[in-house]
Amino acid sequence: MVTPGGGRKRSPRFRHAAATSGLFGMLRVLCGGGGRFFRPGLSLVPLRRPPCRGIPQQPSPADPPAVGRWLLACSGAVAGAVVLGGVTRLTESGLSMVDWHLVKEMKPPRTQQEWEVEFQKYQQFPEFKILNHDMTLTEFKFIWYMEYSHRMWGRVVGLAYILPAAYFWRKGWLSRPMKGRVLALCGLVCFQGLLGWYMVKSGLEEKPDSYDIPRVSQYRLAAHLGSALALYSASLWTGLSLLLPRHQLHETQQLLQLRRFAHGTTALIFLTALSGAFVAGLDAGLVYNSFPKMGERWIPDDLLAFSPTLRNIFENPTTVQFDHRILGVASVTAVTALYLFSRKVSLPHRTRMAVTSLLAVAWVQVGLGISTLLLYVPTPLAATHQSGSLALLSVALWLMSELRRMPK
Question: Is the Cα torsion angle 117, 118, 121, 123 positive or negative in sign?
Fold first, then answer.
């Protein structure tokens, strides 16, 4: 069709196609598409979806549930190492392996000759000379495998932290604050392994002026246990923070006091568990096997027998047991008071469960401790008591997580 002006008259369909092709052609240029994008005509059907190179791609979002589940699994692995370490200590197996090699010792002795060589190494150290001089090779194999299991479990714990951390880091699933926490946890687990060997080394040293049973330094044992508890608590707390949704609690003065009370009670539980390391390191559970009195007295005569006085707190078995008793009674009293105070505060169902569970575990733990003492520290009961301290600490951390503030 030709117009009077000499040009060709465009149909409405053509004019619409030209307008739309101009608009979407502009978008095609902005997005960097080089091919045909729309079919001509009224039908706007895309032939292909061009990559929009002008808009930057967003990074992969973090995956808090996966990271949280990993940290909870790591805390469980640390708990297993603590329990296994306690059994190793109770069976007096910790000094059976006199060498420390990160890779070489992963292969246990296979032949009779290899076992005899390992046994001969053990015979050169004080524990065999003073305590186990009549030990047979079969008995040695038992304590050796106990310590071997503990060391191998420690290596598994290290790999459980380091390998997934590297994977999550590479995937971009860790936020900047979480990267700092993960680095700290991986560093702490490596330090824990070195501290364990430093502790064992103290029991292998010759002490010519001492005729006591060879044992590791109670200071190093407490440091080893303390770092394990710190690693466990940090992993569990971070995992719960990522997995448990925070409650929208109405901030009141009573809730603030309850939160502070829970923090103080958790710190007291941690300190009580740590004092148990001094009890184990000095075999203080075998000194006074009566309750509530120590012998015939509330305060024993040899409570401050050492000089200077400060030495009694960490080196006198009587004082160490007395302090552990006081801390245990203080812990269960604080937990009971916390429960009674929480009845005055309106709490969600899950938080109420945490408070009630804390009360139940605390009283069970006290019962285990008293029974262990009265029965002269049998290994199964003593190991259960040590596991109970981890359970009590775990429930206390759960309660603290339930009472967290909402982020502003």
Answer: negative
The count of C-alpha atoms lying within 13 angstroms of the C-alpha of 168, restricted to the half-sphere facing its C-beta, is: 25
- The string of pLDDT tens digits covering residues 181-237 is 999 999 999 999 999 999 999 999 887 666 678 889 999 999 999 999 999 999 999
Percent of the chain with pLDDT over 70: 83
Phi, psi (rounded to 5 degrees) for 42: -75, -30
pLDDT in tens, 329-376: 999 999 999 999 999 999 999 999 999 999 999 999 999 999 999 999
Nearest one of 346, 349, 368 to 357, comparing CA atoms: 349
- Half-sphere exposure of residue 234: CA atoms within 13 angstroms, side-chain side: 18
C-alpha triplet 398, 399, 402: angle, nearest 5°: 90
The residues that bridge with 200 in the sheet, in sequence order, are none
Chain-centre distance for alpha carbon 283: 27
How far is Cα of residue 19 from the mean position of the Cα atoms in its chain?
65
Tokens of 8: 């060709």
What amino acid is encoded at 143 in this protein?
Answer: I
Show the tokens assigned to 174.
């860790």
**Phi, psi at 57, each rounded to 5°:** -75, 140
**10 Å Cβ neighbour count for 223?**
18
Structure-token match 């109770």, residue found: 90
Query: What are 128-137's contacts with CB under 8 Å, separation 24+?
Result: 130/211, 130/213, 130/214, 131/92, 131/213, 131/214
Q: Greater confidence, 39 or 94?
A: 94
